[in-house]
Amino acid sequence: MTNVTGLTELWLPILLSSVFVFIASSILHMAPLWHKNDYPKIPNEDKVRAALGPLNIPPGDYMVPRCASFKDMGTPEFQEKIKQGPVMVVTVMRNEMTPMSRNLSLWFVFVIVVSVLAAYIAGRALPHGAHYLTVFRFAGATAFIAYSAALWPASIWYQRAWSFAFKETIDGLIYGLLTAGTFGWLWPR
Q1: Is there a single domain that holds both residue 119 and residue 178?
Q2: Per the CB 3.0–4.6 Å rule, which of 102, 109, 160, 183 could disulfide with 155?
Q3: 104 and 172 share a domain?
């Protein structure tokens, strides 16, 4: 029994957990009730599009209103802009439909990276023949943190709907449990 388990010995749980998470995420995001209302329609969409379209805003992330410095945040002019509104953080995307195959491919790469990180943490901590629940805890906690922890700051700092953060956290818990179960099941004996 060695003190650590190498990444090359964990290729099967890395690959299978990635496939299981990919399938689960597809089901969760296609289910009609779970993520259906993550992005509600903006009121007066046609008017908003007509007002913003001619501005040709390049793709990117923007804050409106945006001051030049922290010092400017306290000025009466900036405070008036806040009062008048709208106050928003906006992501402007290209005027095209992003191919779903591109997004799904990038998502699968991300899922593999999370599984590799889970394998690395569990492999550094646990030897061959480690007990199922011990492997489950290490791999599952790592995967859960990777899938969920980065979502809360968007609600904290940018007022992203808390319902979105909670739903994504539950998704992350499901993905973490799938990763944990796969690693516990296929851990080298």
Answers
A1: yes
A2: 160
A3: yes
Instruction: Report long-range pairs for 56-64 (Cβ below 8 Å, ≥24 apart).
Output: 57/92, 58/92, 59/92, 59/93, 59/94, 60/91, 60/92, 61/89, 61/90, 61/91, 61/92, 62/89, 62/90, 62/91, 62/92, 63/88, 63/89, 63/90, 64/88, 64/89, 64/90
Do the domain assignments include residue 149?
Answer: yes
CA Rg value for the chain: 22
Alpha carbon 142 to its chain's center: 14
Residue 150 inside a domain? The answer is yes
My answer on whether 104 and 177 are in the same domain is yes
User: Could you give the 3-state DSSP secondary structure of residue 34?
Assistant: coil
Task: Give the β-pairing of 88-92 and 60-64.
Answer: antiparallel
- The pTM of the full predicted model, rounded to 2 decimals, is 0.87
Query: How far is 109 from 86, CA to CA, in rounded Å?
Result: 37
Give the domain range for residue 54: 45-92
Which DSSP state fits 35?
A: S
pLDDT one-digit tens code per residue, 103-132: 999 999 999 999 999 999 999 999 999 999
